[in-house]
């Protein structure tokens, strides 16, 4: 019975040990660099003592951590020297997510993350290691639904099937590969690699570094170009692998009150999204995917934490054809269906504002490069031409549409994004005009909804026709 005091699975000792060791790793490395020459023996003795203390701490942390359900509350008690108690009422719980990492799957365990509306940067409560049966039983009891059978399946996918969702949709391997191919993650991986190299550079011997640099400089332009292409190809392959690992076996299901999302090859995640917490639905068309007619669908979810691994938005489906979006929404979120393609566009007189904002940084760059290193003047020129085209696209793609209680807005930074928001989910509306706007009868609007961690998420549409901005303002101000 869940009313009895329960401990986590003993494998939680391993998770506690790994977490504490990871947090201490930087200090261990720094002390090794400082004392490796003169005090290596004392250093090794100190590391041994630290490891023993970490093991003892991990065992005591596991032993002193208990949980139970009593009086419609999840009650957790923990702490080695100072005893702490946390009581979470069932009525406050927004979602209960199950995650199975590589180590979890070895022991046939899951991590249970419980979120409330007040969850901050992490979950309100996290049970690091419980059996799959106990995890499902805990989730079902907290959600006031029928307990699972003791003969439930041995993995997360089977448990999902046992819940018999009303509807579900799974991504194909072909689509998943295409999502990785067009993810545009080369830049992100390159940035991470650059930061990692800058940190490791101090550990590289000076002679080896100088000789390698001289060798690279001595190579011909053709060889450098080939090496550059090979580097980009490696980053592209890594981007594909990362996407397929993150979204492998991606499945979305819906029952009466929530969406259930499972994904991941190495770390299996099961995310629960209550329908009442969905503030807006977005359709993103990246510059890479747009020519091929592919989009991704995401949701802005109120509250929760950043531990879901979805950055600031929750991916509802990684990739699909643009003409499949309506069928997808009809199956899972029919309340957000609108005529996304028929929007009220921006007036032509707004184009110059978009162009100026896009090209101004590159005009400054052009002047600086032309003055200091004129031999590379072609680089800012190419960027300037690209920014002009991007400015035109931003003005061309932007627009809005009102459908009864739904507002659709579209904007572009690099990717074209279409957001659909329900009237009652919009927390605030702001309309502003400066002198030039007033002269040309233009206005900028800004809408805010509740986003992750309870913070505001803002959407801005610039240089609307003044009458259009007044229409949106009147629509927002109206209350039944």
Automatic annotation (TrEMBL):
<feature type="transmembrane region" description="Helical">
    <location>
        <begin position="377"/>
        <end position="393"/>
    </location>
</feature>
<dbReference type="InterPro" id="IPR014529">
    <property type="entry name" value="UCP026631"/>
</dbReference>
<dbReference type="InterPro" id="IPR005182">
    <property type="entry name" value="YdbS-like_PH"/>
</dbReference>
<feature type="domain" description="YdbS-like PH">
    <location>
        <begin position="249"/>
        <end position="328"/>
    </location>
</feature>
<feature type="transmembrane region" description="Helical">
    <location>
        <begin position="176"/>
        <end position="195"/>
    </location>
</feature>
<feature type="domain" description="YdbS-like PH">
    <location>
        <begin position="398"/>
        <end position="451"/>
    </location>
</feature>
<dbReference type="Pfam" id="PF03703">
    <property type="entry name" value="bPH_2"/>
</dbReference>
<feature type="transmembrane region" description="Helical">
    <location>
        <begin position="12"/>
        <end position="35"/>
    </location>
</feature>
<feature type="transmembrane region" description="Helical">
    <location>
        <begin position="354"/>
        <end position="371"/>
    </location>
</feature>
<keyword id="KW-0812">Transmembrane</keyword>
<feature type="domain" description="YdbS-like PH">
    <location>
        <begin position="62"/>
        <end position="141"/>
    </location>
</feature>
<protein>
    <submittedName>
        <fullName>Putative membrane protein</fullName>
    </submittedName>
</protein>
<feature type="transmembrane region" description="Helical">
    <location>
        <begin position="41"/>
        <end position="63"/>
    </location>
</feature>
<keyword id="KW-1133">Transmembrane helix</keyword>
<feature type="transmembrane region" description="Helical">
    <location>
        <begin position="215"/>
        <end position="238"/>
    </location>
</feature>
<keyword id="KW-0472">Membrane</keyword>
């Amino acid at each position: 019975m869940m009313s009895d005091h329960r401990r986590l699975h003993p494998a939680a000792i391993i998770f506690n040990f790994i977490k504490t060791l990871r947090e201490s790793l930087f200090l261990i490395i720094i002390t090794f660099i400082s004392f490796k020459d003169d005090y290596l023996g004392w250093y090794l003795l100190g590391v041994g003592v630290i490891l023993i203390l970490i093991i003892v701490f991990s065992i005591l942390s596991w032993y002193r951590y208990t949980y139970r359900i009593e009086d419609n509350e999840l009650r957790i008690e923990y702490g080695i020297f100072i005893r702490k108690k946390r009581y979470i009422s069932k009525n406050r719980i927004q979602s209960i997510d199950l995650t199975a990492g590589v180590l979890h799957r070895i022991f046939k365990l899951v991590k249970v993350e419980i979120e409330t509306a007040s969850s901050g940067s992490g979950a309100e409560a996290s049970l690091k290691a419980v059996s799959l049966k106990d995890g499902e039983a805990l989730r079902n009891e907290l959600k006031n639904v029928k307990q699972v059978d003791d003969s439930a399946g041995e993995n997360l996918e089977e448990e999902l099937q046992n819940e018999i969702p009303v509807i579900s949709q799974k991504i194909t391997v072909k689509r998943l590969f295409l999502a990785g191919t067009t993810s545009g993650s080369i830049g992100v991986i390159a940035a991470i690699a650059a930061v990692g190299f800058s940190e490791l550079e101090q550990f590289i011997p000076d002679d080896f570094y100088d000789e390698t640099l001289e060798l690279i400089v001595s190579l011909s332009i053709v060889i450098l170009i080939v090496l550059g292409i090979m580097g980009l190809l490696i980053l592209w392959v890594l981007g594909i692998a990362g996407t397929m690992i993150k979204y492998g076996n991606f499945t979305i299901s819906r029952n009466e009150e929530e969406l259930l999302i499972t994904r991941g090859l190495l770390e299996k995640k099961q995310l629960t999204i209550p329908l009442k917490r969905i503030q807006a639905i977005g359709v993103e068309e990246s510059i890479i995917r747009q020519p091929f007619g592919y989009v991704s669908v995401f949701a802005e979810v109120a509250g929760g934490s950043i531990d879901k691994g979805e950055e600031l938005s929750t991916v509802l489906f990684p990739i699909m054809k643009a003409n499949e979006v309506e069928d997808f929404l009809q199956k899972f979120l029919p309340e957000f269906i609108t005529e996304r393609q028929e929007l009220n566009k921006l007036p032509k007189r707004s184009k110059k504002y978009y162009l100026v904002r896009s090209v101004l940084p590159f005009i400054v760059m052009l002047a600086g490069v032309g003055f200091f290193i004129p031999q590379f003047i072609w680089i800012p020129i190419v960027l300037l031409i690209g920014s002009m085209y991007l400015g035109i696209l931003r003005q061309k793609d932007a627009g809005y549409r009102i459908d009864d209680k739904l507002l659709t807005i579209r904007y572009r930074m690099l990717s074209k994004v279409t957001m659909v928001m329900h009237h009652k989910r919009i927390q605030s509306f702001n309309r502003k005009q400066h002198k030039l706007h007033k002269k040309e009868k233009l206005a900028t609007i800004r809408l805010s909804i509740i986003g992750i961690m309870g913070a505001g998420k803002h959407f801005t549409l610039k240089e609307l026709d003044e009458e259009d901005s007044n229409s949106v303002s009147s629509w927002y101000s109206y209350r039944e």
